[in-house]
Amino acid sequence: MNASIPAIAPKGTNGAPSGVIDTYPSTDPDCWWSASQCTTPKASGVKPDIAAMPEPRTLGYGFDDGPNCSHNAFYDYLNSKQQKATMFYIGSSVMIWPLQAQRAVADGHEICVHTWSHRSMTAFTNEQAFGELWYTMQAIKLVTGYTPTCWRPPLGDVDDRIRYIAQQLGLDTVLWKYDVFDWEANDPSVTPPVTPQDVQANYDKVIAAATSGTFNTTGAIMLAHELNNYTMQTAIDNYPKLAAAFDHLVPVGVGYNKTQPYVETNYSQPTFQACEFLALNLFSSIPVTFGPLHRPPLIVLLRRFPSYRRPKLTIPIFADVAARGGSVAGPPPSSSGAGAKPSGTSGSNTKSSGSGSGAQTTGSGAGVTLRVSGLTLVLAFIGALALVL
Ligand SMILES: [Zn+2]
User: Fold this and answer.
1) Model pTM greater than 0.85?
2) Ligand 1 mean position, distance from CA 356 (Å)
3) What is the extent of the structural domain holding 149?
4) Do 243 and 308 reside in the same domain of the chain?
5) 360 versus 378: which is more confidently predicted?
6) CA distances from 52 to 109, 175, 287 (A)
7) How far is the CA of 30 from the centre of ligand 1 (A)?
8) Between 191 and 360, residue with greater pLDDT
9) Does residue 377 lie in a domain region?
10) Looking at residue 262, what DSSP letter applies?
11) Residue 357 lies in a domain
12) Same domain membership, residue 306 and residue 197
């Protein structure tokens, strides 16, 4: 592979930048995002970055630097809003917090790679850059059962050499155009200091731009983080405002109708239209333009959008991962993942569960047992009541 990789020298050593940016040509021959925010490669055969959303008034909703050991409150909040997002996970953190990574899949979020050690990718050799991506893909596969097909470079540091290596691994490169700089807030090493007020002003700028029509033709991708409690709380605080300013908040892959976000084919997420249609017509408490009589029953929607059916869970529990001795090349899990949440794994399963028998047609055995038990209890209760009366 080395021979076909664009011949661009590493811009540093072991992921640490060398300062070459100060002498880098203004013509930007490498399409180096750090120098020019270039997202359209200059090397032939390299796919352009994803830095905006094709759908108008749409925000590609995502968070970097997870999984986070204390992200349950944040993920609970997203669940309460039936909101899915793209989560850019650091490989080494996935190994430290595997249960938290599993939750993202169980909740229906889209997982992308955010490298193994979160350093400057252009400052790695070809082999090191390959390792940063490949080992993260394998860690996510090991823990969740799924292999990502997208990645985001830490600090946005990517050039055509790194893009090419990612592309050969089957990874789409996802950047952004709006940064709320939540990751820099309260960090004493940052000069000049970034305050929470600065971060809120950055959120407000994106919200104001959406409200004033900036994204009426092309949607936006914004950089935010699940890095720490402050960044997650700030995301929660701003969610209602973003949801009001944009027509749609969707995972990046959904905006691109990427219905198969992973290498494995037993998982799918909805198209943009399906996501939008279902969100508007079935699950939102916001009045919609056509009345309830025009809303098709859930079973019809499930037939129309089979990806919304509850898939059989294939997420391994942590003990299962440990039992495999941490083997990266281990076989895909075949059990139904007793440790995973029973709410399913695809785009709107959280929404569809309990809304009709159609949603349960491919449910797990445990779910069926629970429902039978519930029915038995109800019948027993009615019987007991009849005896008493
Ligand atoms: Zn990051």
Assistant:
1) no
2) 40
3) 2-255
4) no
5) 378
6) 19, 8, 29
7) 22
8) 191
9) no
10) B
11) yes
12) no
